[in-house]
């Protein structure tokens, strides 16, 4: 489908989405016709080449980047706690927590953007400030300190054993991101903080995106 990643860019206009969809439908029809005729069909050779070229980056996204992006969402001061984001999430990754209840994103989040794009109040935002705070709390300088402490306790430099060093860093990073996000969620209980964070968020000014022909009722059926 046309890109809906409105955490980073404006939602596509209806005209642009229609062009992308038309091209994709043509390619799908060509592949399907070949399959039904018992013929071989080759498509996406260029995409395969770049996919292999970027395989390392893709792997890092799957094991870490995706989990980091899952913790960048927050609900601003216009959130009413209606729970629609929780209801439509295909991974059941959103739950309501706190008083008053506000959405909390778990590691199950795939950043599909259904919540941010269908929120009736456009209350769900992604803030560079939140990203910087989580990154700082989870990696710098605490990660370096933790690695140095673990190396001293073990009697050797963890960085000298790449797999072991990576495993320790990975486990620490996941725990640290979860802890940092939990603290930020508590802090966002302050309406003033939510207000300020929202005003510093680029997504507040973004156009939301909904797929052509897909309604909220369709998502509820999934």
From TrEMBL:
Coiled-coil stretches:
none
Entry superkingdom: Bacteria
The regions listed as transmembrane in this protein's record are 45-64, 129-150, 170-189
Question: Keywords, A to Z?
Answer: Iron, Iron-sulfur, Membrane, Metal-binding, Transmembrane, Transmembrane helix
Question: SUPFAM superfamilies per the record?
Answer: 4Fe-4S ferredoxins
The record's Pfam families line, in alphabetical order, gives: Fer4_9 (PF13187)
* Annotated signal peptide: none
What protein is this chain from?
Answer: 4Fe-4S binding protein
Look up and give the organism this protein is from: Anaeroselena agilis
What are the top taxonomic ranks of the organism?
Answer: Bacteria, Bacillati, Bacillota, Negativicutes, Acetonemataceae
């Amino acid at each position: 489908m046309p890109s809906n990643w409105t955490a980073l860019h404006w939602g596509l206009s209806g005209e642009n989405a229609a062009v992308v969809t038309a091209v994709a439908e043509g390619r799908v029809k060509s592949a399907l016709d070949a399959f039904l005729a018992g013929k071989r069909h080759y498509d996406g050779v260029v995409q395969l080449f770049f996919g292999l070229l970027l395989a390392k980056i893709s792997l890092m996204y799957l094991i870490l980047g995706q989990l980091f992006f899952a913790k960048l969402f927050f609900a601003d001061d216009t959130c009413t706690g209606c729970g629609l984001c929780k209801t439509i999430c295909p991974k059941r990754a959103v739950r309501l927590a706190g008083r008053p209840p506000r959405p909390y994103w778990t590691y199950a989040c795939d950043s599909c953007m259904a919540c941010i794009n269908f929120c009736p109040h456009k209350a769900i935002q992604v803030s560079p400030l939140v990203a910087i705070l989580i990154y700082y709390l989870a990696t710098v300088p605490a990660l370096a300190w933790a690695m140095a402490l673990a190396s001293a306790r073990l009697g050797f430099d963890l960085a000298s054993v790449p797999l072991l060093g990576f495993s320790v860093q990975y486990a620490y990073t996941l725990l640290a991101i979860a802890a940092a996000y939990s603290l930020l969620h508590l802090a966002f209980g302050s309406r003033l903080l939510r207000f300020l964070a929202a005003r510093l968020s680029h997504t507040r000014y973004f156009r939301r995106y909904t797929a052509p022909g897909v309604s909220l009722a369709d998502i509820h059926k999934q």
